[in-house]
Amino acid sequence: MNNQRILSHFHESAELKIQSATVLAPHIAQAIEMMFSALSNGNKILVCGNGGSAADAQHFAAELVGRFERERFPLPAIALTTDTSILTAVANDYSYREIFSKQVQAFGQAGDILLAFSTSGNSGNVMAAIEAALEREMRVVALTGKGGGAIGKMLTDADVHICVPHDRTARIQEVHLVTIHCICDGIDVALFGGDVNE
């Protein structure tokens, strides 16, 4: 692989992030406000996604339970992608579509938030999780791309849709990662105010 091809990945990623910033910032701010309000009221955040998005789900939960950039008390977030016994039992006994929705039904309560990742907006098991969350009077923050797919059509006015304006999965995931960090930073600022370096 030549350097030009490598550089093109960096340039495309950087350009998309700059382009996405203005478009997505109001939606990210909404998500921060919604999550901070839920956490302040004693609620929790459930997180799901497949593949690279499963890694994003776990990354986000780790930042809340552990820390982002400053010391604070742990915040309740659960990645629904991590318990292999639950995942394989549900997939085997029911269907792969239900691996997240069963957990939402088990752990989700009114006032909780589902953070749902799907780069295509069409992941069946993520859609099933959203359906379960809405049935339980939870609110949803969906991170998608490629126009938002079917997930974009499922969300209510009370939910937040952060849809990356791109069709390439790798680029969408890269913007999702920046979005996760924006949300974590926003929650920390809402809790403590100011900047980590102040």
Would you give an account of this structure?
The protein is of the alpha/beta class and 198 residues long. The protein has one domain: Rossmann fold, CATH 3.40.50.10490. It contains 7 helices and 5 strands; from the N terminus they run αβαβααβαβαβα. The chain has helices at residues 3-40, 52-65, 84-93, 101-107, 124-135, 149-154, 169-192; strands at 45-48, 77-79, 113-118, 139-145, 160-164. Strands 2-1-3-4-5 form a 5-stranded parallel sheet, with helices on both faces. It is globular, with a radius of gyration of 17 Å. The relative contact order is 0.18. The model has no long low-confidence stretch (mean pLDDT 96).
Short description:
By secondary structure, this protein is α/β, with parallel strands linked by helices. Helices cover 56% and strands 13% of the residues.
What's the layout of helices and strands?
Layout: H1 3-40, E1 45-48, H2 52-65, E2 77-79, H3 84-93, H4 101-107, E3 113-118, H5 124-135, E4 139-145, H6 149-154, E5 160-164, H7 169-192
Parallel strand pairs: 1-2, 1-3, 3-4, 4-5
Helix pairs in contact: 1-7, 2-7, 4-5
Radius of gyration: 17 Å
Q: Architecture, CATH level 2?
A: 3-Layer(aba) Sandwich
- Looking at CATH, the homologous superfamily is Glucose-6-phosphate isomerase like protein, domain 1
Indicate the structural class. alpha/beta
Assign a percent range to the helix content.
Answer: 55-70%
Could you give the order of the helices and strands?
Answer: HEHEHHEHEHEH
User: What is the count of structural domains?
Assistant: 1
Beta-strand content: 5-15%
Globular, elongated, flat, extended or rod-shaped: what is the shape? globular
EC number: 5.3.1.28
Subunit structure: Homotetramer.
Function: Catalyzes the isomerization of sedoheptulose 7-phosphate in D-glycero-D-manno-heptose 7-phosphate.
InterPro entries: GmhA/DiaA, Phosphoheptose_Isoase, SIS_dom, SIS_dom_sf, SIS_GmhA/DiaA_subfam
